[in-house]
Amino acid sequence: MDFAVIKAPRLLLTAACALALAACAPDYDEKAAAAQGEAPAALPASQNELDAVRSALKGTLPDLAPEHVRSTPLPGIYEIQVGMNFGYVTRDGRFLITGDLTDLQTRRELTEDRRKQARAELVSHLGETIEFPATTLPAKYTVTVFTDIDCGYCRMLHKQIKDYNAEGITVRYAFFPRSGPETASFYKAEEVWCSADRKEALTRAKAGQDLHGNKDCANPVMKHLQAAADLGLRGTPAILLSDGEMLPGYHPPAELLQILAKAPGAPAG
Amino acid sequence: MRQAAGARARPGCAAGAALLLACLLAPPAPAAAEPDAELERLRDRLAQTLPEVKREDVRRSDAPGLFEVRVGHAFGYVTADGRYLVAGGLTDLDSGEAITDRRVREERLRTVGAFDDGAIVFAPPGDAVKYWVTVFTDVDCEYCRMLHREVPEMNRRGIGVRYLFYSKDGAPSEAYTRAQQVWCDDDRNAALTRGLLQRKVADGHLCKNPVIEQYLAAKSMSLRGTPVAILPNGEILYGYLPAEKLLQKLEELERPAAEGG
Question: Across the interface, do B92 and A95 touch by the CB < 8 Å criterion?
Answer without folding.
Answer: yes
